[in-house]
Amino acid sequence: MSAQSDSANKTTSRRRFVLGAGVTAAAAVAAPAVQAQSGPINMRWQSTWPSKDIFHEFAIDYAKKVNDMTGGDLKIEVLPAGAVVPAFQLLDAVSKGLLDGGHGVLVYHYGKQTALALWGSGPGWAMDANMLLAWHKYGGGKELLTELYNSIGANVVSFPYGPMPTQPLGWFKKPVTKPEDMKGLKYRTVGISIDVFTGMGLAVNALPGGEIVSAMDRGLLDAAEFNNASSDRALGFADVSKVCMLQSYHQNAEQFEIMFNKDKYNALPEKMRAIIANAVEAASQDMSWKAVDRYSKDYVELQTKDNVKFYKTPDTILRQQLQIYDEVVKKKSAENPLFKKIVQSQIAFAERATRWEQDTVVNRRMAFDHYFGQNAAAKKI
Question: Nearest CA to 361 among 167, 64, 128, 180?
Answer without folding.
Answer: 128
